[in-house]
Amino acid sequence: MSRYSIMSVVLVLLNILLATAPAHSFAHKHSQPGESNLTVGNFIDFSQWLGIDYGQPTLRKRYDYVIVGAGPAGSVLATRLTEDPAVTVLLLEAGRAEIPLVSTVPLGAPNLQATDYNFAYESEVQTRGCLGLWDRKCSWPHGRGVGGSSIINYMIYTRGNRRDYDAWAAAGNPGWSWDEMLPYHIRSERANIRDFDRNGFHGRDGPLSVEDCPFRSKVATTFVESAQQAGYPYRDYNAGDQIGVSFLQANTLQGRRVTSGNAYLYPARKRPNLHILTRAWVTKVLINKATKEATGVVFVRDGKTRSVKARKEVILSAGAFESSKLLMLSGIGPAGHLQSLGVPLVQDLPVGELLYEHPGVFGPVFIVRKPIDNSISLDGDINFSNFIQYLKGRGVFTTNSVESLMYVKSPVAASPDSGLPDVEVMQAFSSIDYDTGTGTPRAFRLTNTTFDGYFRPIMNLRSFQYLPMLLKPYTRGKLRLKSTNPFHHPIFQYRYFEDDRDIEALVYGMQEAIRVTSQEPFRRIGAELYRKQVPGCEQYTFGTHEYWRCHVMTLTATFHHQVATCKMGPPSDPEAVVDHELRVYGMRRLRVVDIGVVPFPFTAHTSAVAFVIGEKAADLVREAASKEDYRSREKYSSLPPAPSFLWSPFDWPFK
Ligand SMILES: Cc1cc2nc3c(=O)[nH]c(=O)nc-3n(C[C@H](O)[C@H](O)[C@H](O)COP(=O)(O)OP(=O)(O)OC[C@H]3O[C@@H](n4cnc5c(N)ncnc54)[C@H](O)[C@@H]3O)c2cc1C
């Protein structure tokens, strides 16, 4: 048997094992019934044998910095800070190490949501959205493990619009404008994008690989051509301006998923001054109440509660939900809410008072009547030849299914600026019926009625779909603690489409997708709008405005880009939790460094932004350390020098 075929068999077996094993984990026993953090795939900890080995550090009592959470921002920060061998960092991560063979296959992304790499949150029961989904709740997955959500996300690399960054800075946050943040994008990136990587906006030497998806179907090329005919210019949407169309730029390396773990931490994991502790769930920030200084954290590992001290700073990089949760559990949050739960108040701040999401919709769906390829079903595509292609860095396994992006501006957009889109239309190479298993329907909570009534009838046809995503929602929500149990999920008080303009913007995006698909290049491949009514919308005549509104409210998609729970803003901003240097207001030696600080919805999928928050935070922290003498508080001891940071792709199985 060749090396390739052995690896293929291993890959299939691992996927099956991970996706089907029953649920169990150390946090499970702390969760309430019906509220398991887990779905399936947690019974056996495969990561102990197959995961990347981050070592079993013997913990010190104190580190210079204790960072909570190894998502994109936390991983970058830990890696950059420990470039200085005199700086010691402990990175505590609630989840496990990545299993490269399982997590790196882009086409398998939806299946990862059924594993322990997902906190598996869900929205509250909805009345105006998610109506065709289980219990009328949208799925709010959230990554857990070394890599955070970059382990389970769709790898779409978008930085956002220059106007977003400029508005961020103009809101009283110096240092966050486009011109100031672009160098961080360039510093983090290793671009391999055929048409654009030499246009001056991309980096070539950073740890984070960004490349054209190696797989590109005929639908994608037809879409990009048609969108141009419909008036959308072909452009690099990562160069500051976005209205237009382009192929997907993805966080992959030769078609394999790139995470913050394997891009940043993996090459740095042997530094003696960086300790990475997995399965360490932080439950509280230790605070000196007299001085309002963060002094360390408490965490639970293997059922044991321990604490560790920070000589300089405690930095929360636990993501948009968990950093807010940790602050509140530690007494930092809205006074009334904390008092109602009996949490002693340390600092009254609007933590979790604001929460934005990027809602979207599955559809419109099209059927392709002319033969363009054989990609009818996932079952059909799981074959030996595609495995070989994948191992060579090519083929259908290298796509997350989204192939190109179009940025449009709807008539209900709040900003009059014609250069700021409010809807992104993603073109996927297939529609949901392609996934003949349960991965995608389960990931998005589609009910059997929805799947059987709408997608199953086209299972044997070549179809594809659009995913319009609302970039600038009007709807705002809140995040609250459910209880003082740190293992309980938070409550998301988020009501989809509470503001009706959010539905209107998405309907506009769908209609633009239909207009583009009516162009001549699509006629050449026989693209035809799928006209079946979504179950629940039968009372509306197909194609009317009312019908599309119902479609949006029923087949609601959610894209997991929640922000603003620890909003950054100036002292005058009543919603601000952190200042422009990511320091928690009213506290000392405590920062939040993750996507939750972004003050408003970005015209981007949020991962690239999280990476540069980590990059910039590293500079801010280093600068603060150079000014402030933390040594006066604790005796300073430096560890032996670390090897210098060299970027390298994962050693295995890619070498
Ligand atoms: C399913 C999905 C698909 C997505 N698709 C895309 C996409 O295609 N493109 C894109 O740009 N963005 C995408 N995103 C969003 C993007 O991945 C996130 O915005 C980004 O990862 C946020 O990074 P972060 O550093 O803020 O933290 P996170 O990625 O949220 O990581 C936080 C880490 O902290 C850990 N943690 C949390 N609480 C604790 C605790 N108490 N103790 C210890 N550790 C803790 C978590 O386990 C996690 O590892 C997607 C997200 C999801 C969930």
UniProtKB/TrEMBL annotation:
Residues that coordinate or bind FAD: V282
InterPro entries xrefs: FAD/NAD-bd_sf (IPR036188), GMC_OxRdtase (IPR012132), GMC_OxRdtase_N (IPR000172), GMC_OxRtase_C (IPR007867)
Keyword Flavoprotein: yes
Residues spanning the signal sequence: 1-25
Needed co-factor(s): FAD
This protein's record includes keyword Flavoprotein: yes
Coiled-coil residue spans: none
Keywords: FAD, Flavoprotein, Signal
Active site residues of this protein: H561 (proton donor), H605 (proton acceptor)
Domain Glucose-methanol-choline oxidoreductase N-terminal residue range list: 143-166, 319-333
Family recorded in the similarity comment: Belongs to the GMC oxidoreductase family.
Protein name as annotated: Glucose-methanol-choline oxidoreductase N-terminal domain-containing protein
